[in-house]
Amino acid sequence: MIRFIQFLYVNESSRISQDLKDRLAIDLEANGDGGGIVEDDDVPTVGFLKSVLNGDNVTIYPIDFDQLRAEHFMKWVHFLLIENPDLSYGTFSSHRSALFNLFRRHGKVMSIDLAREMASHFKGLKRTLTSRDGVDNGKVTHGKDPLPFDLY
């Protein structure tokens, strides 16, 4: 989810919580040069975000949970797909699971509309990726192949 938060910071900064923005400003002021806190393009580093979000620190909300829409998450999925077209559906499914976990970890409940929209988008994504794989490789299965009976 760290990479998703970085993506939101760059592309949808209004979706980043004020808590996280304030913590970033405090740490930048204390550090001075921003080393280890922000990258060259002023995006919070992975290390900074991990230090703020990992552990028992659930008081700092990384995103504005009430304002997050499925389209924001799907923009990130689309960005990942453009960046690496060989990613499988399982990768995106793991990211969706991490988003659900982020809500749960911070004591927030994902709205029914958001969950439905995500499910709908992911059905389409699965269909798209499967048809792409079928055309490109001729093989639609992913993951491990079952063992043939003669190996038992």
Helix-strand makeup class: mainly alpha
Biggest sheet architecture: none
| Order of H and E elements | HHHHHH
Shape: elongated
- Please tell me how large the radius of gyration is: 19 Å
What percent of the residues sit in helical stretches (DSSP H or I)?
Answer: 55-70%
Poorly predicted ranges: none
Q: First CA to last CA: what distance?
A: 41 Å
| Number of beta strands | 0
Strand content: under 5%
Annotation field: number of helices = 6
Mean pLDDT: 84
Describe the structure.
- It is a single chain.
- The chain is an all-alpha fold and about 150 residues long.
- It is about 60% helix and about 0% strand.
- Helix 5 runs antiparallel to helix 6.
- The longest helix has 26 residues, at about 110-135.
- The protein is elongated and about 65 Å long.
- The N and C termini lie far apart (about 40 Å).
Could you give a quick summary of the protein structure above?
This protein has 6 helices and no strands. The protein is mostly helical and 152 residues long.
Which SSEs are present, and which pair or pack?
Blueprint: H1 2-11, H2 18-31, H3 46-53, H4 70-83, H5 89-105, H6 112-137
Helix pairs in contact: 5-6
Features of the shown structure:
152 residues
